[in-house]
Amino acid sequence: MKKKYYWAKRMMAAALSVMLISGAGGVFSVYAAQTVYQNRTKETITRGVTYEHNSRMTTDGIQNIYALNIDLNESTLELKEVESKEEYGLKETVQKMLTENGAIAGVNADFFGMSGKYSAGFGPVVRDGELISAGTSLNHDKNQYASYVLQEDGTSVFTYFKTTAKFSNGIRTIDLASINKVTSMVFPICFDRHVASNTAAIDARFPKLVKFVVQNNQITYISQPGETVNTPEDGYLIVMSADYRNNAAFQFQVGNTVSLQINSTIDFDQIDTAFGGGGLLLSNGQEAPATDIVAAGRQPRTAFGISQDGKKALLMVVDGRGDSIGATHAEMAALMREYGAYDALHLDGGGSSTMAVKTLEDAKPEVKNHVSDGAQRKVISSVGIFQNAAPTTIAEIAIQVVDAHTQPGKTTEFQVYGLDEYKNRINIAPENVQLEAIGMQGSWNGYHFLPSGTGKYAVVAIYQPKDAEGNPVGAPLTATEEATCYPTARIKATYNDLNVKAGGKANIYVTAYDTEGYGRGITKDVQYQVANPAIGSMQGNVFTGLQKGATYIKCSWAGQETYVTVSVGGAPKIQAPTSTSVPDPLLKNVTKQNDGAFYLNVTGKLQYTGNEKIDGNTYQAHRSRVRAAADQGADMTVYGGPCDIKTPTAQDSMTWNGGYRFLNRGGTSIVMLAAYNGIRKTDPSQYGKMTMDLDAANNNNIIIITDKTPSDYPSAAEGAYFRAILDKYVSQGKHVFVVSSSGRAYWASAKDGVRYINLPNLWRADGTANPNVYMLQFRILGDEITYEKVKV
Predict the structure, then answer these.
(1) Residue 783, CB-side half-sphere exposure with 13 Å CA sphere
(2) What is the DSSP-derived secondary structure letter of residue 699?
(3) Of the candidates 546, 549, 507, 513, which has an alpha carbon nearest to the alpha carbon of residue 528?
(4) For strand 178-179 and strand 209-215, is the pairing parallel, antiparallel, or unpaired?
(5) Which of 671, 676, 678 is nearest to 737 (CA)?
(6) How far does Cα 745 stand from its chain's mean position?
């Protein structure tokens, strides 16, 4: 594909004169926010198309970027604008639009009128060489709305097009508002069979419309106001309001010879594909000036671009107005250029910004970004990517685990499917696949596996291709997937405190958590028992209040119990028993021995930083007590919070200094992170330093010491971002501990394979010593790690 900007004016045959012009250039500007860390995932969704999600931590916050890269040299791929399949001009969600039109991926496209169920895109639409629609009101006073044009010779054009349309009988000439863009119908439009075979739909929307039926450059019929007429196959309609007919077009009569003259800066006869957008982003690799219709500041944005050689197309969405900061015009231009675009334009942004992709694991296009309105906005059009190659023979197979982390008594579902040379997904029935669990005994029922033990295991799928007669063809195809089955550690109700009116109902939802902190819904498997049946009853997971009073519900599964307190009719609550749980399997007694293991002690905050006065002898005595315990029975001591002990330690040590630190000791990566305002606001460079050090050391055991646990970060989004980074190391089979030092209580929990532990401060805020001070003792031998909490 070639790319070209046009400046010259040229004439078309008879009724069409065309001038193609370029957009203005600009100076490329750099990011205002510095990227300190990024987490990128990239996958092929069909031959020639990749989908990427890039979650960046910048000095200004998280920036979530979604990109589709399309190889335009792939002959079976097609890129085109799509609209509602249900009704012309009807606004639909991007996901529905793409799915019903058969696209495998795409984004929202043109700007449009926001009010009402119906609208029209502002820019031109050419699809498969056919002019679908074009407006006549854009860019006449100044350049605002750019369009992308793919010519039949493969040349790409980014331009601010202008179009006028006039209808004349030689006596009277009227200006047309559009070709096939149905909006307010204040002014007449040209209407043909690209819209509909008759005018019933627009007659239902707009009363008393008058239609001129034109065939062979002659008006053959003029309808009565509101009369529905058929759209001629070899002609068109001029549609207008009755008022306009009576006041401005009364000179037109049946039998008149007429002409339709369209003047445009794009030659519709030479175009294969066209769609509209906002202002240009890039022109010849440089940032283009923002037009006044481009929202200022950081916003959710959608953009489209082409590479310098014309061989690649790029669709991009950047989330904004939520956990992601969005992008400015300059930042979006920089992103598009970074991802390979040389020329680019804005598509509609804000709440419209949506990307839907059908990955190899999806049955249909699924929305991948977080739309800023909280739900998909209905838009007028989308840009879709189409794979036109029909499925062929299976070239490879893939296996996908639906429930990667199960627990005893629950099955794990796997899905096995084939992929042809174009990555088209081809379903394979379970009876045609041989499945084998490696490292785990259990039983199969189709694609469902019930483990009989606990631990990690792998499943190998084997498929033998066969010809039409059922004879084996070639070597068997294989694929492997991993899963876990860990013991149930505890169960928890989503809401453990209910208030119900007499006769009212409430649903109870329960999740089981395994020893690694992975949860799985078990609501339908739980046994429910109301302590006082006179107060209420259970039917499945639904509680019904019978009379005023208080009780609790015991929820039981896999040997564990949790309780939900219930007040019916406003009665005072009663105390429920304590939920049960099993201890962490890594929590064991640790006593230093000469066994080749590495022993590590970790304390919390020892320094008092409050405003009260403490007796010097008392202060020294308590610090010395904790230090004496920390310096015994270990090869190394880590003081995990502010510590004002100045004398040398008895052994190797690492002391909190309020900033980033890293040590590689005994096959363990020890990280100190300052996060009192969240990592980004405290020191965002720590993200890059930590991941670089952890990757370089590649130890199987990771202990992160921090002053604030991620769940307490000021930004919940950053807490989730930090946990996503840790998930990378958990997925590699590493043991990850996050040890915080704040407050006066010890607590420990496991979530998604990470152990979070808080060590209480030695001192209370009032300057008295905390009687409940603990430290951690670790034993590390190779890839094995155990720990013990020790009161000091």
Answers:
(1) 5
(2) -
(3) 507
(4) unpaired
(5) 671
(6) 36
Tally: H helices and E strands in the chain: 8, 59
Q: What angle do CA 224, 229, 234 make, to 5 degrees?
A: 125
* Strand pairing report for 774-781 and 598-603: antiparallel
pLDDT of res. 22: 26
- Predicted pLDDT of residue 650: 64
User: Which backbone phi and psi does 694 adopt, to 5 degrees?
Assistant: -65, -40
Q: Are 491 and 510 in contact (CB under 8 A)?
A: yes
Pair of tokens at residue 3: 């790319």
Q: Which of 151, 150, 180, 183 is nearest to 163 (CA)?
A: 180
Q: What would the 3-class secondary structure string for 4-39 be?
A: CCCCCEEECCCCEEEECCCCCCCCCCCCCCCEEEEE
339 CB-side CA count, 13 A: 33
Interatomic CA distance for residues 21 and 741, integer angstroms: 64
Closest CA to 723 of 693, 688, 751: 751
Q: Which two tokens stand for residue 45?
A: 């969704």
DSSP string, 46-82: ETTEEEEEEEEEETTEEEEEEEEEEETT-TTEEEEEE
- Quick: pLDDT tens for 744-753: 999 999 999 9
| Helix, strand, coil percent values for the chain (each to nearest 5) | 10, 40, 45
Neighbours of 153 (CB within 10 A): 10
Q: What is the rounded distance in angstroms from the CA atom of residue 327 to the CA atom of residue 324? A: 9
| Of the candidates 90, 129, 67, 97, the residue with the CA atom closest to the CA atom of residue 386 | 97
Radius of gyration of the chain (CA): 34
pTM metric for this prediction: 0.90
Summarised one tens digit per residue, pLDDT across range 386-400 is 999 999 999 999 999
pLDDT digits (tens, 9 = 90+) for 464-516: 999 989 999 999 999 999 999 999 999 999 999 999 999 999 999 999 999 99
Residue type, 75: S
**Measured distance CA(621)–CA(290) in Å, rounded:** 67
For residues 282 and 23, give the distance between their C-alpha atoms in angstroms, rounded to a whole number: 9
Token code pair at residue 475: 């070597």
Take residue 247 and report the two structure tokens written for it. Answer: 């006041």
How far apart CA 604 and CA 587 sit, in angstroms, is 18
Contact 587, 787 (CB under 8 A): yes
Q: What is the pLDDT of residues 711-731, one digit of tens each?
A: 999 999 999 999 999 999 999
